[in-house]
Amino acid sequence: MGSLRGGSGGEGRNEDGGKVGLPALEVALAFPQATPASLFPPAVSDYYQLDDLLTNEEKALRKKVRAISEKEIAPIMTEYWEKAEFPFHAIPKLATLGLAGSTTKGYGCPGLSLTASAVSIAEVARVDASCSTFILVHSSLAMSTIALCGSEAQKQKYLPSLAQFKTVGCWGFNRARLWK
C-alpha cells in the first residue's frame, strides 16, 4: 500500500488511487457483474405481466427513456463509478428525457402520471442509480416542495428553470427544533 497523496483532490487516497487502506479498484475487473445496462439483452419475459398495466403513452415514454439512457448515460458511467464522481456534464443529457418535475403540472413540467414517473425513473436506474437518484431529488423533493408549498411567485420563478435542468434543485431538512 502506498502513502497518501497530498494536495487538492488527493486527500484520503493512496498513491495507486485507492481509498486509504484499500487497493485501487477497477470496477470492470473487480466487479464484472457491474456491466452497463446497454449490454444487457432485452427482457425475455414479463413474469408479472406488468407491461399489460401500462398505457400506450407510458410504454412509449419507457422506450424513449431507455433508448436515451442506454445511448447517452450508460457509456460514460463506468468511468465515473471508478472515479467516485458524478457526471455533471451529463445533466443536459438527462434534461432531454423530459422528466424534471415528473408529476407536477404546468410551469414547464411534464405532469406525468405516478406510473409513468415510476417507470421512467426505473429505466434510468436500470442504467445508473446515481442518475436516477439525482432526478428523484431534483424532481420529487426540490420541485415538488416548491409546487406544493411555494407561493405562486416562487413557482413562476423557480419551476420553469428547474424543469429544464437550467437550475439544479436539492433539498435540506433541519430537525433542530424537534430537539428543543
Automatic annotation (TrEMBL):
State the PANTHER family in the record: ACYL-COA DEHYDROGENASE, ACYL-COENZYME A OXIDASE
Source organism: Aegilops tauschii subsp. strangulata (Goatgrass)
GO process annotations (BP) = fatty acid beta-oxidation
Any transmembrane segments, and where? none
The protein's name is Acyl-CoA dehydrogenase/oxidase N-terminal domain-containing protein
Q: Which domain of life is it from?
A: Eukaryota
Q: Which GO terms describe its cellular component?
A: peroxisome
One Pfam entry name:
Acyl-CoA_dh_N
Positions of the Acyl-CoA dehydrogenase/oxidase N-terminal domain? 55-164
For this UniProt entry, the molecular function terms from Gene Ontology, in alphabetical order, are: acyl-CoA dehydrogenase activity; flavin adenine dinucleotide binding
